[in-house]
């Protein structure tokens, strides 16, 4: 405990101090990541279970800092959001990944899609929809090949405003996936009001497939999604058993280590060629 000027006491343990120091260092180092070219993207394949074909990829950010080494997005995305640095970083991710998938299309992989994680902080920006449309124009990617992944945290912000933007983009042909589905706090009645095209079931439910008890949870989500006219994607698929179950329950798309880990951009074409054989 530490005495403050006014004679009150605050608990300021060493661990807490360390936590704040670490956040500050990460935030400072994040400021120049774009200018210094420290970011890259890995691409994790998504398989369409209906056709067995590669639907495309989810773009996942990677940060190799000269000061901190490799930093996981799990430890810097929240800090980037709180400091609003996620706005330029998220724009970079979108531009880079749309350009990447357009490049693949031009090499003959015509139907490949790209799915991109979007922070609620980005969605709150007035120019968000303009920014997305401009990147599609600049890269030449058609809107139907882009999917945006949003989370239920949008329910904590101005829902009406964000809904309007998503509705607009959906009308342009862009897919909207609700990521980490099942872990948040959205009521089902809210869900029906959301302009989404896909439910992305969280990995925790896919892990649950291994236990008979929890299996019904995953299949209920798939059935419910389909009843609502949505596609359903499963993330974090790690075993043949999980894949077989998801095939039986008519899940639309899967993603996970069982298919492939996220792949550095320059290795993607090799992976694709190897899979097709
Ligand atoms: P997410 O959107 O839920 O992405 C899935 C995460 O699970 C990724 O972790 C991926 O590498 C990992 N994963 C995929 N398949 C498996 C599997 O079979 N088993 C296991 N154990 N893990 C699997 P990653 O790349 O570390 O990203 C973590 C989170 O960081 C993402 O979770 C997402 O919320 C966020 N993130 C990543 N890139 C971006 C980005 O460009 N923008 C924003 N706003 N967030 C991002
Ligand atoms: Ca995601
Ligand atoms: Ca997520
Ligand atoms: Ca997840």
From TrEMBL:
<feature type="domain" description="EAL">
    <location>
        <begin position="23"/>
        <end position="276"/>
    </location>
</feature>
<protein>
    <submittedName>
        <fullName>EAL domain-containing protein</fullName>
    </submittedName>
</protein>
């Amino acid at each position: 405990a530490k005495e403050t000027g006014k004679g009150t006491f605050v608990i300021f343990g060493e661990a807490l101090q360390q936590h704040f120091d670490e956040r500050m260092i990460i935030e400072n180092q994040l400021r120049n990541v774009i200018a210094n070219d420290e970011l890259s993207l890995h691409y994790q394949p998504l398989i369409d279970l209906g056709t067995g074909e590669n639907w495309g990829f989810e773009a996942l950010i990677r940060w190799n800092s000269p000061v901190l080494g490799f930093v996981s997005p799990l430890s810097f995305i929240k800090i980037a959001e709180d400091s609003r640095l996620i706005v330029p970083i998220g724009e970079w991710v979108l531009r880079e990944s749309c350009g990447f998938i357009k490049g693949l299309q031009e090499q003959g992989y015509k139907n490949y899609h790209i799915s991109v994680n979007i922070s609620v902080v980005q969605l709150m920006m007035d120019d968000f929809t303009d920014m997305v449309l401009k990147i599609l124009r600049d890269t030449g990617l058609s809107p139907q090949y882009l999917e945006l992944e949003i989370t239920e945290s949008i329910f904590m912000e101005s829902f009406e405003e964000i809904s309007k933007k998503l509705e607009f983009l959906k009308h342009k042909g862009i897919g909207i996936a609700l990521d980490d589905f099942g872990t948040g706090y959205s009521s089902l009645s809210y869900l029906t009001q959301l302009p989404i095209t896909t439910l992305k079931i969280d990995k925790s439910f896919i892990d649950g497939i291994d236990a008979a008890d929890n299996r019904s949870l995953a299949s209920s989500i798939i059935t419910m999604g389909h009843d609502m006219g949505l596609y359903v994607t499963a993330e974090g698929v790690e075993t043949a058993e999980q894949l077989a179950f998801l095939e039986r329950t008519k899940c639309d798309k899967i993603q996970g280590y069982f298919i492939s880990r996220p792949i550095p951009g320059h290795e993607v074409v090799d992976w694709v060629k190897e899979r097709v054989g």
